[in-house]
Amino acid sequence: MSASRTERLLNLLLALLNTKVGLSRAVLREKVYRGAADNDAAFGRMFERDKVDLKQFGFEIETLMDTGFGNDDPASTRYRIGKDSNRLPDVHLTPAEGTVLLLAAQLWERAALGKAAADAVRKLQAAGGFSEAELPAGVQPRIKPAGQAFDDVVAAMHGRHPIRFGYLAGSTNKEETRDVEPWGLGSRFGQWYLVGFDLGRGAKRFYRLSRMTTAVTVLTNHSFDPPADFDARAELDSLRELPLRTATLDVTPGRVLALRQRATAVTEGAGTGRDLLSVPFRDPEQFAEELASYGPHVAVREPADLRAAVVRRLEAAAAFNAAPPVPVSFPDAAPATRARKRTSEDQLARMLQLVPFLVHHQGLHIQEVADHFGITRKALIDDLKILICSGLPEGYPDDLLDIQWENDHVYITEHLDLSRPVRFSEEEAAALLTGLAMLGDLPALAGLPDGDAGSALESVTIKLAGAAGDAARLAGSVAGASVAPQQSQAFAAISQALRDGSQLRLRYLSPQRDEVSERDVDPLRLFSMDSTWYFEAYCHSKSGIRNFRLDRIESLEPNGRPVSMASTPESDVPARLFTPGDDDAVVVLQLTRQGAGLADDYYAERTAPLPDGGLLAEVRFGSTDWLPMFVAQHGGSVRIIDPLQLRDEAQAWLLAALRQYSGSSSVQSQEAG
Fold it and tell me: Taking a C-beta distance cutoff of 8 angstroms, is the pair 223, 161 a contact?
């Protein structure tokens, strides 16, 4: 047998699953660990590590003792795994329940828990739980990635380890180091929050993930137990939305239509040649991000904290954009992956899904199987080669897994009791159950009959919670906000047009162009980032595919014509916020560690890591006119490296914006230089 670790773990699992009386260490060393250990001590260490690895998959290894021997005599100890150990219970879903489940799982496609959600769905499909479900036409809800911090915190919550991170305190605006027991994560008011016990302060605290200034360090040498009755949703419900306040803004006449539409009062001219707007807001940090993007067209008069937040962003953006450039080098021809390296545990986890999937889906084409598991054809064949060499300790032909692929179609005739996938992990249960809780009334809006939508959401949640068992613990520690769109009428009209194949006429506000336009469009699909919904359409006035935010649509109605079939949705799943074109400008950006996620958001074609944890990213933009707004909005997290002309234009925009605020240190230093 191969000495590969994956094969050894698989053979050990098969041996322990297929014995009633148990196997001794001597038998396991001779039959399973052939040549893998030079002596008894090395075998003992290897066997103990492998037992821990199998336990991580949920397989409880029973220890049996022969009568008449001491309880601590290893020679008399036998091991086995019960055939029903850690097997996923039977879960049968109706087509409506399957549709709701797919909507929930799809939320995490580009976000943390995305792999866990996909693995959980594959387990249900491998067990034959559902196969008829289809997503509503053109509907793709998604959660916006919360960054690497989200993944790190979820891992620490799963392992029950404290974490350490740098944090920009809202009260002092200074960076501080925090040691925290992470109890839960959740989304409220457009922000992701960590709820935990601050070890330094001895009290429960809430932290915005967007304010973390360093990588999260998991303190694996320590552990904790969260409160037994902890519920992330209930904790986040205790947060109160910030009070409504009013900003007084100087605005260039005829510009910034998005602000004007929200203004409660407008005084034209105001004696200064600029208009005076009163605009309501709640969160000064969030509002400052928008105001900074308007550059020299908006100046904040009051309140002082909003003014300071805008200036801080503009100064950080100007300082970063003016800093000496870093060398530009892209050693790879593709975006640099930040995913962790695949391990033998990953491969074994896939195999434990692959065998039952093949049992319930005999004769599939080998490429179809590879696509289903998101791997290459070669990787799948490598898996199959390990599987056909794996089996029971005796090693007879009938004791091996029997898998064939004839004419590129895969069949399995002997599965050795691996016909059912393992139970959901905590991350998988959390991904599905949290996703279901976040759907709200989206299933009904997406086209499921009203009666079926509510009952299907409730029934599939009950079924999955029962199947998850103890693994559902982590689901109570993660709570997202509802992804159902606030623009329900527009969503329903677009959904109906998608089903009917009809064109739409809309009036649309474009903040980048600062204009309202009328367009006839062929709707292609709806998709979201959190609760912000977009629809992809073929725009007849632009003769190309465009994306439109639902909250920027001023009016929407069918124009009485069928879609022209001038275009079809891209095959990309999920839908992309930006569609590349042949005449796009290629821009090299430098991203800080905090801004590194922008490389994914804007589909960087190439990336290269930097020593400080940031990235170089080569991104295609259909229009570069709004890049100064982009740099200003992100306040020192991104700058333009190349072309130099675009960098200079962005810098001029930033300095013009800062001149509106007397005493700006960035303007003084730039002008002095």
Answer: yes
pLDDT of residue 575: 52
Tokens coding 92: 């049968």
Low-confidence ranges of the chain (pLDDT < 50): 1-3, 336-341, 571-574, 672
- DSSP, collapsed to helix, strand or coil, labels residue 287 as helix
Helix (H) or strand (E) holding 354: helix 344-360
Token digits for 329? 């080098």
CA distance 405 to 669: 70
Distance separating alpha carbons of residues 68 and 107, to the nearest angstrom:
57
Q: Which residues contact 333 (CB under 8 A, 6 or more apart)?
A: 606
Closest of 99, 148, 141, 96 to residue 121, by C-alpha? 99
Angle between helices 344-360 and 377-388 (to 10 degrees): 80
Residue 671 CA to its chain's centroid (Å): 43
What pLDDT, in 10s, does the model give residues 281-290? 998 888 999 9
**DSSP secondary structure of 576-615:** PSS---TTPEEEEEEE-TTTTTHHHHTT-SEEEE-TTS-E
CB-CB contact of 526 with 138 (8 Å): yes
Q: For residue 87, what is the DSSP state?
A: B
φ, ψ of residue 196 in degrees (nearest 5): -165, 180
Instruction: Give the tens place of pLDDT for each residue, 599-655.
Output: 877 888 899 999 888 899 999 887 888 899 999 999 899 999 999 999 999 999 999
The conformation of residue 323, written as its DSSP 8-state character, comes to S
For β-strands 606-609 and 585-591, DSSP reports them as unpaired
pTM as predicted: 0.77
Helices (H), 141-241: 148-159, 232-237
Distance CA 91, CA 87 (A): 12
